[in-house]
Amino acid sequence: MKKNVFIILLAFSFVSCNSQTKDAKIKKAVIDKIDKEITKKSETKNDTMDFKIVKTDAEWKAQLTPEEYTVLREKGTERPYTGEYDKHFEKGMYVCAACENPLFTSDTKFDSHCGWPSFDEAIKGSTVYHKDTSFGMIRTEVMCAKCGGHLGHVFDDGPKETTGQRYCTNSVSIKFLPAK
């Protein structure tokens, strides 16, 4: 319902601002600036689509649970506050559920109260980024650098005393390895 209301309001705003009024120019400038920032962020973070592990859909379906397949391969999202690692704070490492690529350490995890596991930093080189314009939003998708599995999105509203970033991650896309 909210999505439909948003789409209707968005369509109305574009129709009512059809002429190049001052408001329309300002809206376009803001959208262009956001678009450039995301593109710049992706480029500076080595956005590459060449993955070391490449499998067919049939191979992924045989390896992953249906929920893992939906999130990791079809870019799905688990419901908030339902994931295994949302309130999980043991010492250890979080790895990709599809290929076991090390992604996050427990010392970068924090409770963002968003309903998904949140980290303020990924292990260097473990993730790649892609501009995501689905659902009428502009976001930065985070994927495993080794297999291309969808992990979640990164936002610039994380803890300011650290990196300022919030890697909003699906629990089903990661597995936890406890510290030894």
Describe this structure in words.
By secondary structure, the protein is α+β, with helices and mostly antiparallel strands. It has two domains: about 1-45; about 50-180, Peptide methionine sulfoxide reductase (Metal Binding Protein, Guanine Nucleotide Exchange Factor, Chain A, Beta Complex). Helix content is about 30%, strand content about 20%. The chain contains four helices and nine strands, in the order ααααβββββββββ. It has helices at about 1-15, 20-45, 55-65, 65-70; strands at about 90-95, 100-105, 110, 120, 125-130, 140-145, 150-155, 165-170, 175-180. A six-stranded antiparallel beta sheet has the order 3-4-8-7-6-5, with helices on one face. A three-stranded antiparallel beta sheet has the order 2-1-9, with no helix packed on it. The protein is globular and about 45 Å long. The N and C termini lie far apart (about 45 Å). The model is unreliable at about 1-20 and about 35-50 (pLDDT under 50).
Poorly predicted runs are 1-20, 37-48
CATH superfamily of the largest domain: Peptide methionine sulfoxide reductase
Q: What sort of overall outline do the alpha carbons produce when their principal axes are compared?
A: globular
Mean pLDDT: 82
Write down the CATH class of the largest domain. Answer: Mainly Beta
Whole-number count of domains: 2
What fold name stands as the CATH topology of the largest domain?
A: Metal Binding Protein, Guanine Nucleotide Exchange Factor, Chain A
Structural class, please? alpha+beta
Quaternary structure of the protein: single chain
Order of helices and strands: HHHHEEEEEEEEE
Lateral arrangement of strands in the main beta sheet? 3-4-8-7-6-5
Q: Work out the helix count.
A: 4
CATH architecture of the largest domain: Beta Complex
Helical proportion, percent range? 25-40%
